[in-house]
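Structure first, sequence second, as always.
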């Protein structure tokens, strides 16, 4: 893939960009791609740059290098001597990365091939959905370290799998395989190997990018914003989003194309 208009990548995180798709790879395989503060800051900068690129980015694949891990968690070594206040700062940095991913208008697919543990699972949960190879495994093992999930696991894992399953996973710290993760709805699709995973994720983004970009972006904004809100407040967000769709050229084009029995010509406006 050509590296055109790519945001400047930092060491340990690579970005390839072309054809409206960005592939962001955490590249720290000797530590199983553990999220050091440097990696988190690099991810934050990259997702902020992708947001600034606006409609040039129609979809993102987030993955880990090395064939063994998506991300094996927050960097345990970097946490060993933190004060409680520094621990709070570390958690807030993880939350800022998650917010940048959720705030990006384009969909982000977590492509998991190997371990997605602790902060790694939390990073994947901040993506729109998770695709994984059969060889992958998932868990929130923080209690084994005397910690709790710090990058959103207590919030997003229950939303993904239900409160009782999230409690079971967090209290035990148990690791589950891709088949079980798919069975409980944590993983949306599984694939035999990494090549099939990327082919599948790209095919999904190709499908998404034939649609009206503003409608996809507004859907994401409403879905992310509505999560965890009370019904009345969540449905009001949907009302605003539905109304905003009427402000777009693509909505008028899509409806006209249906009535005229032709394919729509979306422009992303
Ligand atoms: N932080 C820092 N380094 C890590 C790491 C992590 N989360 N996970 C793995 N590594 C390092 C190992 O220390 C090891 O480095 P060295 O070769 O320098 O010793 C290297 O990656 C390879 O790991 P292992 O030798 O342990 O590989 P393994 O195949 O025997 O085990 C594993 C793999 C089961 C994933 C094991 O590495 C492991 O349990 N890792 C920690 C998982 C974990 O507890 N994650 C949660 C972290 S806390 C957190 O994430 C808090 C939060 O919510 C914000």
């Amino acid at each position: 893939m050509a590296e055109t208009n790519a945001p400047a990548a930092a060491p340990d995180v690579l970005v390839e960009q072309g054809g409206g798709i960005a592939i962001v790879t955490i590249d720290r395989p000797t530590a199983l791609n553990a999220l050091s503060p440097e990696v988190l800051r690099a991810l934050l900068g990259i997702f902020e740059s992708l947001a600034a690129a606006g409609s040039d980015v129609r979809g993102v694949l987030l993955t880990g290098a090395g064939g063994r891990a998506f991300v094996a968690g927050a960097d345990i070594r970097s946490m060993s001597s933190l004060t409680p206040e520094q621990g709070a700062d570390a958690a807030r940095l993880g939350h800022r990365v998650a917010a940048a991913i959720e705030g990006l208008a384009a969909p982000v697919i977590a492509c998991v091939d190997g371990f997605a543990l602790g902060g790694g699972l939390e990073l994947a949960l901040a993506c729109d959905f998770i695709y994984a190879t059969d060889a992958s495994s998932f868990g929130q093992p923080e209690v084994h370290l005397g910690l709790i999930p710090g990058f959103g696991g207590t919030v997003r894992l229950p939303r993904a799998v239900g409160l009782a399953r999230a409690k079971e996973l967090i209290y035990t710290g148990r690791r589950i395989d891709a088949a079980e993760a798919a069975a409980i709805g944590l993983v949306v699709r599984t694939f035999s190997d990494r090549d099939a995973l990327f082919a599948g994720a790209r095919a999904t983004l190709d499908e998404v990018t034939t649609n009206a970009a503003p409608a996809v972006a507004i859907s994401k904004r409403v879905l992310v914003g509505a999560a965890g809100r009370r019904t009345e407040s969540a449905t009001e967000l949907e009302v605003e989003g539905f109304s905003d769709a009427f402000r777009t050229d693509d909505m008028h084009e899509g409806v006209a194309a249906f009535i005229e029995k032709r394919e729509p010509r979306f422009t992303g406006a």
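Margin note: The beta strands are 13-18, 21-26, 59-64, 69-71, 108-112, 115-117, 129-133, 137-139, 176-177, 189-191.
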